[in-house]
Amino acid sequence: MHKRGPGLPAAERNALGKEIYRTIVENQYNIGIVGLSPMVQGVIVVKNGLNNVPETAGNDWPLRTPNTGFPEQWFYSSQ
After folding, report:
1. How far is CA 30 from the centre of its chain?
2. Cα separations (Å) of 6 from 26, 68, 75?
3. Considering only CA atoms, which of 4, 77, 69 is closest in space to residue 12?
4. Where would I find the H helices in 1-79?
5. Taking the CB of residue 12, how many other CB atoms lie within 10 A of it?
6. Is 79:68 a contact under the CB 8 Å cutoff?
7. Which of 2, 24, 56, 57 suits 38 as a labelling partner, its CA being 20 to 30 A distant?
8. CA 34/CA 37 separation, integer angstroms
9. What is the distance between the alpha carbons of residues 49 and 79, in angstroms, rounded to a whole number?
10. Angle at the Cα of 31 from the Cα atoms of 27 and 35, rounded to 5 degrees
11. Which domain of life is it from (predicted)?
């Protein structure tokens, strides 16, 4: 359906775009386990023995999580 759009006149292209968005909205499924977390204090799951992980970090894709927590400085301890 979306491949026809570029070749259509503007009015038909806009109508097709609205139909695509309507289909996406009506058929979008989401299983919310945790939900949206606050930016400053996101949900952070850390395996036992992993050290130097921040207690709070930005939890958002534009921030490229987990990069804001500097994972290159995380390390495992033997204890």
Report:
1. 13
2. 24, 39, 51
3. 4
4. 10-26
5. 12
6. no
7. 24
8. 8
9. 7
10. 120
11. Eukaryota
Tokens representing 67 are 């990069």
Residue 16 CB neighbours (<10 A) = 15
Position 29, amino acid: Y
Nearest of 76, 28, 24 to residue 49 by alpha carbon: 76
Amino acid at 23: T
Chain segment 11-31, per-residue pLDDT in tens:
998 898 899 888 888 887 666
Query: What residue ranges do the domains of the chain occupy?
Result: 1-30, 34-79
CB 16 within 8 A of CB 5: yes
pTM of the model: 0.42
